[in-house]
Amino acid sequence: MPKKKNKKQQKGQQFLTPEQFMKQRARSLEIGACYISEDMKDYGEGYVIVTRRHTGGRISMAMYLVDIYCLGVKDSFFRLRLEEDELKEMLDHGPIIRECSYDEAHNWVYGAIAWAEEAGIAPDKSFAITKYMLEEDTDDVPLIEHEFGYNGKHFLVANNNLEASRYLPLMKKNLGEGNYTFTIKTDDDEDLDWDPDIIQERLEHVSENPIFKRYGPSTEYTYHHPEYPKTLQLDGPEWLYSKLLSTDNALYLPEELTKRILELPHDIVRHDLEQIVLYHIGLTCDKIPDDYAPDGYTGILSNCTILLGEVGNEESSLNVVLELLRQSFDFMDYHFGDAGNEIFVPTLYLLGQNRLDVLMNFVKEEGLETFCKCYVFPAVAHIALVQPERRNEVIGWFREVIRFATKMLPKTQWIDCDLAGLMLHDLLDIQARELLPELREMFATGLVDLGSCGDFADVARMIANPRYIGNPSAYETDTYKRFANMKKHWEK
């Protein structure tokens, strides 16, 4: 007769969070039925579903949206302890699927991830949790060779120009020019079946879309970083660092822990957060060491950046956040993934709203990553949206940036065609009609990426259209709500 668990053991099981259960218990469950979209091979995208059975008969499952042409795992989610009829209803009302072996499902997911990683594209951050519904990707799982890509190449099917602009630099960097293809869905393509004939037709006309034309070279990353702290000198309690370093708090900080941190003296927390950030920059700025996070991703830099928005100051704290943004693409991709907007824009607004001179100097620095600089623009535009009395100040700031861009675009290393194009979205948000003369001159250089918002005539038309006004609540500045939004971001 099995030994009865004591109350402490029962309580520990009862209060496991779903994420903790996934990490600690999911792989101990028996693998159940697995499924795959019937038309995955035809359309290049589909779902893989893996279930596991609890001893009491309930079922836990994870569903993975897999792009076998290019992007790998685009999204995923999990559900725990479903009744059989709940799972059946979910499957009956979901995509058209067929049952498959676990080995087939495993190889579709991990094969797509490996294919995407060749292009420098990581799986969606939700996979950090949902991967625990799968077995570890080792030789214990038989290898099944699936075909990835289209005609042997990575093929990006982007939903819009912005999505394409996110992945194209990665693909160019990791695959080399000519070793990948792409297309962008139009408004009429929402329910389009992407069969091979349609794909081939789109590929023949792909060069007609302005997103695929280069309007100038990209900025080459040349930043030479200073010496960062090699040891941690912290003033606060020991638990602060250990909690921030814990993989249990990797994707966001729970409300109770956030409250506990913010109840500490803010000067002490600020000092320690700044030291932690600089120390971890030093550990990973040149490369991510193999033993950097042996227990898994910690999210320490993203959580520190959000907290600095609350407890930081406009001097040392702002400088630390900007030092993060001076790092390489690989550094930023590892620590922040695709959540940079949620992490950096509100913090830059909170710390930099009265230090526009510092933000201007950062934009004018040489040899930094374009996508890191672009977080500054929405932060400054947000000032005009929530503090309309400062609109003229914000317009003047952007006027200086545009004039700087017009002068420096041919030299590339200070501002490139991509950054000039991305800035336009934030000017539309604040309907910056006052800047049309300067924008006309910038477009006249021929070095502005037209794939972002079109040509000057398109931008002038959109600036006058109220539908493009930005939302003042687009960027949450309350720390508790920011972490709640991060939870939604990673668990969507």
Description:
By secondary structure, the protein is α+β, with helices and mostly antiparallel strands. The chain contains 24 helices and seven strands. It folds into three domains: 18-133, no CATH class; 154-212, no CATH class; 238-491. It has helices spanning 7-14, 18-24, 40-43, 84-92, 102-118, 127-130, 161-175, 196-204, 238-245, 255-262, 266-284, 300-311, 316-324, 329-336, 340-352, 356-363, 370-373, 376-386, 391-408, 417-429, 436-443, 450-453, 456-463, 479-491, and strands at residues 30-37, 45-53, 59-67, 72-82, 97-100, 154-158, 180-184. A hairpin with a 4-residue loop joins strand 3 (59-67) and strand 4. The two termini are 42 Å apart.
Across the major sheet, the strand order is 4-3-2-1-5
Mean pLDDT: 87
Proportion of residues in helical segments: 40-55%
Poorly predicted runs: 1-15, 189-194, 203-209
The shape, in one word, is globular
Integer-rounded radius of gyration: 24 Å
Please give the number of β-strands: 7
Total discrete domains? 3
Class by helix and strand content? alpha+beta
| Main sheet makeup | 5 strands, antiparallel
The fraction of residues in strands falls at: 5-15%
Termini gap: 42 Å
Task: Report a brief summary of the structure.
By secondary structure, this protein is an alpha+beta fold. 48% of the residues lie in helices and 10% in strands.
Write the layout of secondary structure elements.
Layout: H1 7-14, H2 18-24, E1 30-37, H3 40-43, E2 45-53, E3 59-67, E4 72-82, H4 84-92, E5 97-100, H5 102-118, H6 127-130, E6 154-158, H7 161-175, E7 180-184, H8 196-204, H9 238-245, H10 255-262, H11 266-284, H12 300-311, H13 316-324, H14 329-336, H15 340-352, H16 356-363, H17 370-373, H18 376-386, H19 391-408, H20 417-429, H21 436-443, H22 450-453, H23 456-463, H24 479-491
Parallel strand pairs: 6-7
Antiparallel strand pairs: 1-2, 1-5, 2-3, 3-4
Helix pairs in contact: 11-12, 11-13, 12-15, 15-18, 18-19, 18-20, 19-21
